[in-house]
Amino acid sequence: MANERSDSDWSLSDNDFDISQGSESDSVSEEYDVESDSDTDIGDYDHASVWTRAYPPEDISSGTKLVFTERHTGPISVPPRNSQPIQYLYLFLTDNVIDNIVKQTNKYAADVLATKTEWIASHKRSRFRRWNPVTEDKIKKYLGLNLLMGLIRVKDEREYWSTCRETRIPFFPETMSRDDFLLISRFFHVSDSSKVKPRGDPNFDPWHKIRPFLDSCNELFKKHYKPKETVSIDESMIGMRNRFAYIQYMPNKRHSRYGIKKFELCEADTGYVFHIDLYSGRDFYASGSEKGLSHTVVMSIMEKSRLLNKGYHLVTDNFYTKVPLAEALLENKTSLTGTIRINSKDCHKS
After folding, report:
1. Does residue 279 sit in the same domain as residue 335?
2. I need a surface site. Which of 46, 94, 206, 286 has the fewest CB within 10 A?
3. What does the pLDDT look like over 201-227, one tens digit per residue?
């Protein structure tokens, strides 16, 4: 036939194996059994040099195969299709959350103003004189303006209420006065400061100022969604450069290298955030643990998320992936997949 070639036509360059003659071609034929396979046409292969040895798959006994036991995964108790976006926001910003913000903000404002009575009396132009207790409606407006500020960026917060014809943004002064907004920002609270444990106390919480809101979010994340089999844990950053004890620097986070580090458990298919933990240093997060930070983070989040012993498949990067962690998860009927550092002490050299 016209497309048939002689053996001599298959001689490759000096850098490749010479299939037509020589000891190298014998070894290739012996290793890959090219000539003995009557169904294989050597013309189907472009280069002998790109061939690699294929090893048989690992023999995994049926006894170690985990079964995913969760059923009816996905959204739970959500608004009907074509609902307004605000309805989905209210799944997490519930009336209880708003009521708590109103209560704690008014309480904190009353406590602060009670200690500044004489100062306010001697400063007749003080903004504190115009304080009025907030309501549910006013807090919703305040939170809405904060969300809008993320879309409309200006150099100074007061510019949102600018009266300049060229730069004014009518929506802000029509929704809330500048003084009201700044006063709410001054007194905004979600927790009772009078119940805070002092630093050094065994029960001291570094995130006490936002703990009620964070706990509420984590519970509502679980209330309205059941994740599918594959989930992932990784860290992320809330970008900021404020004067704050727990600001972290992560050079590999290009979008924001400075800020508050948080650990998140997300569903792999949709990216839905199922649980959030804030990092406040090893002294608080992994204190007393002999397993190390990465092990403690994963086991703690999986336990808080109530996903252990259900056959879930966790995916992590090489910061978390360790043999002891895989063994601990397997004991809790959870499988682990992830990249691993070649210089890890748990990685056996071969």
Report:
1. yes
2. 46
3. 888 888 999 999 999 999 999 999 999
pTM: 0.76
When divided into structural domains, the chain yields a total of 3
Q: Look-up: residue for tokens 């336990």?
A: 303
Could you tell me if 91 and 174 lie in one domain? Answer: yes
Instruction: Report which of 175, 174, 171 is spatially closest to residue 142, judged by C-alpha positions.
Output: 175
Query: What is the enclosing helix (H) or strand (E) of 233?
Result: strand 230-239
**91 within 8 A of 78, measured Cβ to Cβ:** yes
Burial 48-70, CB ≥16 within 10 A → b, else e: beeeeeeeeeeeeeeeeebeeee
Q: What does the DSSP assignment read for 314-344?
A: EEE-TTT--HHHHHHHHHTT-EEEE---TT-
**For residue 184, pLDDT beyond 50:** yes
Domain containing 185 equals 85-193
Structure tokens at 123: 């400063």
Q: How far is CA 326 from the centre of its chain?
A: 20
Pairing, β 313-316 against β 230-239: parallel
CB atoms within 10 A of CB 12: 14
Token reading at 23: 């000891």
Inside any domain, residue 345:
yes
Reduced to 3 states (helix: H, G, I; strand: E, B; else coil), residue 275 is: strand
Return the residue matching tokens 């290298």. Answer: 257
Nearest-angstrom CA–CA distance, 342 and 344: 6
